[in-house]
Design brief:
single chain; 386 residues; 14 helices; globular
């Protein structure tokens, strides 16, 4: 590598600090930080800055409202061509005020994200710069429907899905036709369980929803927010209102796969695949169907899960994650969320995450996720040169 990494990230975010620390521990130069807020500007000399680097790493633009607002504005023209989903003008986007945890204009944000990634890919290609995770692959990973299609085409096990649902009535009709009483509804462009609903019915139009999404009444209408606390909703009218709001953000429904459990808690596995090989494993346990750790859930012990599964099934779990990773050949690293069914007979990929390596205090072969990615990157470059 002829020069330091160019790192596109939010400077205040711990992701940038973790990667910088990993570069230092591996004896690599300090990465050159290119803030997302600058990269998204029309006049930012991106190609010139990338031409000075030895490689490029793209980090999540999340947890920064100013950047979110820029991304929504960037996607305004493309979003207008899709009248199915809510959109606003670039001027209205610039005037948006921060509303912490609010879920809004996700499809328009995604259109902006596509344009930003295309801009980065073009600049990196023009100066023949190696990129850790390809922008075009990141784009697919940020669309749950596109990801599921890619996995299905490759024969990777996924939950059967009902497609993109327009509203509660449409979802209910699709569930009846498919004979499904339990589904997960997921916003296609969400992350960290934002807007996800575990929905079930007894078939007699009595419903229950488990979710971190909440509705709040405002003078301008109902607003959808993401909470850090899971709630159970049993009022059908409220569930209908909630599902309608989530479907307006473009949402995919899929069969609810009952998860395996340990010590009275359901679990799934986050497996980080680096250069094609399964590496760091985090067990996410919960007393609810939703296992994301930021929702008050807990890490489990991988050794306990491995012993429960046995070596043959543990190896099969890692191989399934690697098969999912192989569907994204342009990603040097990819996090795979893997469900183990309650009978311990099969493994199903729930999601993939191009930025899912934020795994502090988790080691593999004595290395953090960032250190392992750098070691594998260096090995890959050496093998390419030889």
């Amino acid at each position: 590598m002829a020069g330091p990494f160019a790192l596109i990230a939010n400077p205040e975010n711990r992701r940038a600090a973790y990667f910088s620390e990993a570069c230092q521990s591996r004896g690599l130069p300090e990465p050159v930080l290119l803030p997302w807020a600058e990269v998204l500007r029309d006049d930012f000399p991106l190609r010139k800055r990338l031409a000075e680097a030895g490689a490029l790493r793209i980090e999540s633009p999340g947890e920064n409202f100013a950047v979110e607002r820029q991304m929504i504005g960037l996607g305004s023209d493309a979003a207008r061509e899709e009248p199915t989903w809510p959109s606003i003008s670039r001027e209205a986007a610039a005037a948006l005020e921060e509303d912490h945890g609010r879920l809004r204009l996700q499809r328009q944000w995604y259109h902006g994200w596509l344009l930003a990634l295309a801009k980065i890919e073009s600049a990196a290609s023009s100066c023949e710069l190696a990129v850790m995770n390809s922008p075009s692959e990141i784009a697919v990973a940020f669309d749950k429907a596109a990801t599921q299609f890619r996995l299905l085409e490759a024969g990777v096990p996924i939950a059967p899905n009902l497609g993109i649902c327009r509203d509660f009535a449409d979802l209910r009709s699709r569930m009846r036709e498919a004979g499904m009483n339990r589904v997960f509804l997921k916003p296609c462009h969400g992350s960290s369980a934002s807007g996800i609903v575990a929905l079930e019915t007894d078939g007699r139009d009595r419903w229950q929803a488990t979710t971190s999404a909440v509705l709040t009444e405002h003078s301008q209408g109902v607003r959808l927010h993401n909470s850090l606390h899971l709630q159970r909703v049993r009022d059908t009218a409220r569930i209908r209102q909630l599902v309608d709001a989530i479907c307006r953000e473009r949402a995919l429904a899929e069969r609810w796969i009952p998860k395996a459990s340990i010590e009275g808690r359901t679990y799934d596995l986050r497996i980080l695949v680096i250069a094609g090989l399964a590496a760091h494993v985090v067990v996410r346990t919960s007393r609810s169907p939703i296992t994301n750790l930021h929702l008050g859930n807990e890490r489990g012990n991988p050794d306990v899960v491995r012993a429960r599964l046995g070596e043959f099934k543990w190896a099969a779990a890692l191989q399934t994650a690697e098969a999912a990773g192989a569907c994204f050949p342009g990603c040097h690293y990819l996090a795979v969320d893997l469900m183990v069914d309650s009978a311990l007979r099969r493994f199903v990929v729930a999601e993939v995450n191009a930025f899912g390596d934020l795994l502090p205090r988790v080691l593999w072969n004595g290395m953090t996720s960032w250190e392992a990615e750098l070691e594998a990157w260096r090995s890959t470059l050496l093998n390419t040169k030889s």
